[in-house]
């Protein structure tokens, strides 16, 4: 019910638009097409709104200029009312608009060409998987230049040794400070795009197999990358697993117990038990075991190597691995699906999103800042900058730096930067430092000294924060100027602003009033009772079949009351003499029942049992009880289970006494349903499709004239069943009740009343607004647009 009139407002999805060049030239005043009170609206503003409406994806909202002008006028009247009430000056409104503005601005601040280039590059890389090893020489992101140079020179020295023939793995074990990979000779395994930080990924993909890269800088330090192998992409896998957890600190007995559990689970699978059942009973992965062990799809480099290798070694859908040991414990893996690399067209949207959120975002930011530095003049006050750097001390490296105000008279409120003529003070910068500072930690270096210059230099850290601050201020300056530089941005933001205000005043004046004004609703209903009537209606069940035989079967199955027998059953459970407990094989058979009942919420399962002449009467009851208890434990409600105990006299299936005893020692499982549509499904499952149509359809409901062509065939509606053939179909129409035409009660009409009452309230409100803000239309401008 809460729809914006005329569909004038665009969603934020419109923000995926082109970055426009700055517009600085003066333009002549635009002609005014509409004046509301003292406020004027230009022809250009109206025409932009009209054009967007015409190109809206909702064709039902499109209209001609004159009709749209009325919608536009009403919209602007409502927004003007909101402005008069001061709704656009509240703190909540400003915060909401700031959020929208930042979201909208991202599209204009980001280099879309670069995003597309990085996305295409990533897709190209995803077609190949790289196997590599690395050596990390740590140096903090904010380390002093001398320490950075020493780390770089050490990396070069190690590279020289490797090129001279020293084993790279040995050099990694001796020198690398990556505690996870160093013991394994720096091995990173196989990976693909987005698996490593972007600089390392680029080094890996641009270094030939067998070669070693030059030192590559990351926030952790310098890396040497040796590419050992390349192979085509193996695509994505979807697997399920059974996990038996094993703590790394487990003793020998604990390790043996875990291995025995996984081996027992594997043996059950080898005997034919269903993977889902074993998983639910055995797996320690609480997240996935209730879903049959299913894991999210993954690609190379997303799982631990042992798990990944075992998963990719499975070749056929449904294949199950032998137990696999990882650092999490023991796994049995089942292959669910395997897909090759999707097309770029399909992957492009997600690739663009990943490009803007992974470490490539640094590349995008630097490109934006490079562009903005050319557009805006930036000046640093050297003396104030030096004063700021002098305030840095070791607490900055621990994320505990503080400052007190007022600062020294030589610094207090002094501009540290000037961007496009606007000063930014040192006080603003220091507040930024307080907010953004973080402990500079590098585990490989922290042991050497609590404040190591290799981790970070206070002065260098403060300088880097100033650079970051300057970049943020540049972006904020550009964002603040987007209204002036981009008419498109300004127009979109104006529409969002109007939409927020419109929603607020519509809520107060129309939506909320229409919902809560029960007196007004009742008055409107009383004044318009003639509109709210039910026509004559028939409660009917309509069966349409391909031929008379199928129609007869359907009518026989639907005879009587629900539940209806479906002529569908699960496999019988057979028992040895005097056996009442469920075997693993029988539980496996009941799993099919569990799945069927879960997929068909209207189904009822009849559990019937018997015993042979040599068994006690209680045996059949025990068999039924154990089956029912098991089904209830698997989640089937007791009210969906029917029981039938034949005792010692079930239907005989053979004259052979021995065979008949075996027949008697069983549980039968017959499906019924409370839904007539399920009867049609059961019949259709055994019939071939004819021209793509089902063999039988069953439709029931309360129908008025015109609702169903087969019911309309009957001239006079009355209780009873009518069968006939029409259009090559056999049809049965059973009318159980005929409701005569009558007036609706207020409760029955209330939904429609509220909808129509909203329109009345809105019309009354618009009339008031037109009196408050006289409407003046420039007809000449309207005529120009309608030519």
From TrEMBL:
Keywords: Isomerase, Rotamase. PANTHER family: PEPTIDYL-PROLYL CIS-TRANS ISOMERASE HP_0175-RELATED, PEPTIDYLPROLYL ISOMERASE. It comes from Spirosoma agri. The keyword Glycosyltransferase does not apply. Pfam families: Rotamase. PROSITE patterns: PPIC_PPIASE_1, PPIC_PPIASE_2, PROKAR_LIPOPROTEIN. One of its GO terms (molecular function) is peptidyl-prolyl cis-trans isomerase activity. Residues 127-229, 234-337 form the PpiC domain. This is Peptidylprolyl isomerase.
């Amino acid at each position: 019910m809460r729809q914006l009139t005329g569909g004038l407002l665009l969603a934020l999805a419109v923000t995926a638009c082109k970055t426009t060049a700055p517009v600085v030239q003066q333009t002549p005043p635009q002609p005014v097409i509409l004046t509301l009170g003292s406020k004027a609206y230009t022809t250009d503003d109206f025409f932009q709104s009209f054009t967007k409406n015409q190109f809206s994806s909702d064709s039902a909202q499109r209209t001609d200029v004159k009709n749209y002008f009325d919608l536009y006028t009403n919209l602007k009247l409502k927004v003007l009312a909101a402005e008069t009430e001061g709704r656009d000056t509240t703190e909540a409104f400003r915060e909401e608009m700031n959020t929208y503005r930042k979201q909208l601005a991202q599209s204009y601040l980001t280099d879309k060409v670069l995003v597309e280039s990085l996305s295409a590059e990533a897709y190209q890389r995803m077609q190949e998987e790289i196997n590599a090893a690395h050596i990390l020489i740590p140096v903090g992101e904010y380390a002093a230049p001398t320490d950075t140079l020493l780390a770089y020179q050490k990396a070069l020295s190690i590279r020289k040794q490797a090129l001279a023939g020293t084993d790279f793995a040995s050099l990694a074990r001796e020198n690398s400070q990556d505690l996870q990979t160093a013991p394994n000779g720096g091995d990173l395994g196989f990976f693909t795009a987005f698996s490593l930080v972007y600089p390392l990924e680029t080094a890996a993909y641009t270094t030939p197999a067998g070669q070693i890269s030059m030192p590559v800088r990351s926030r952790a330090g310098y890396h040497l990358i040796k590419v050992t192998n390349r192979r085509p992409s193996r695509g994505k896998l979807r697997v399920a697993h059974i996990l038996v957890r094993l703590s790394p600190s487990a003793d020998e007995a604990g390790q043996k117990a875990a291995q025995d559990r996984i081996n027992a689970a594997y043996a059950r699978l080898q005997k034919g038990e269903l993977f889902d059942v074993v998983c639910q009973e055995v797996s320690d992965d609480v997240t996935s075991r209730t879903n049959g062990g299913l894991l999210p799809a993954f690609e190379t480099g997303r799982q631990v190597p042992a798990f990944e290798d075992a998963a990719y070694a499975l070749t056929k859908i449904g294949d199950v691995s032998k137990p696999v040991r990882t650092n999490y414990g023991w796994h049995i893996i089942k292959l669910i699906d395997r897909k090759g690399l999707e097309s770029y067209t399909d992957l492009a949207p997600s690739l663009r999103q990943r490009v803007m959120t992974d470490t490539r975002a640094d590349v995008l930011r630097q490109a934006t800042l490079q562009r903005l530095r050319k557009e805006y003049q930036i000046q640093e006050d050297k003396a104030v900058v030096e004063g700021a750097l002098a305030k840095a001390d070791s607490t900055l490296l621990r994320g505990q730096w503080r400052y007190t105000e007022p600062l020294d008279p030589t610094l207090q409120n002094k501009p540290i930067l000037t961007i496009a003529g606007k000063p930014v003070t040192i006080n603003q910068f220091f507040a930024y430092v307080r907010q953004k500072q973080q402990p500079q930690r590098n585990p490989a270096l922290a042991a050497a000294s609590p404040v190591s210059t290799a981790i970070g230099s206070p002065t260098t850290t403060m300088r880097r924060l100033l650079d970051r601050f300057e970049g943020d201020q540049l972006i904020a300056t550009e964002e603040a100027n987007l209204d002036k530089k981009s008419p498109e941005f300004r127009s979109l933001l104006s529409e969002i602003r109007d939409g927020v205000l419109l929603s607020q005043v519509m809520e107060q004046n129309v939506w909320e009033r229409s919902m809560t004004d029960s007196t007004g609703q009742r008055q409107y209903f009383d004044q318009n009772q003639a509109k709210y009537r039910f026509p004559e209606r028939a409660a009917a069940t309509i069966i349409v079949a391909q031929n008379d035989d199928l129609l007869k079967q359907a009518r026989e199955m639907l005879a009587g009351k629900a539940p209806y027998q479906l002529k569908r059953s699960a496999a019988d459970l057979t028992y040895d003499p005097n056996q009442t407990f469920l075997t693993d094989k029988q539980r496996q058979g009941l799993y099919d029942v569990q799945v069927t009942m879960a997929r068909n919420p209207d189904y009822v399962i009849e559990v019937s049992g018997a015993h042979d002449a040599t068994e006690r009467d209680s045996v059949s009851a025990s068999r039924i009880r154990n089956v029912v208890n098991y089904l209830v434990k698997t989640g089937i409600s007791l009210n969906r289970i029917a029981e039938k105990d034949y005792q010692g006299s079930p239907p005989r299936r053979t004259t052979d006494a021995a065979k008949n005893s075996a027949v008697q020692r069983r549980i039968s499982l017959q499906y019924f349903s409370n839904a007539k549509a399920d009867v049609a499904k059961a019949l259709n499952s055994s019939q071939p499709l004819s021209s793509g149509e089902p063999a039988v359809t069953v439709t029931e409901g309360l129908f008025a004239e015109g609702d169903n062509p087969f019911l309309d065939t009957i001239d006079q509606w009355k209780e009873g069943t009518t069968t006939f053939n029409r259009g090559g179909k056999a049809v049965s129409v059973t009318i159980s009740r005929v409701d005569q035409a009558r007036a609706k009660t207020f409760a029955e009409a209330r939904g429609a009343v509220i909808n129509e009452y909203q329109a009345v309230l809105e019309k009354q409100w618009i009339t008031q607004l037109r009196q408050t803000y006289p409407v003046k239309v420039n007809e000449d401008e309207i005529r120009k647009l309608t030519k």
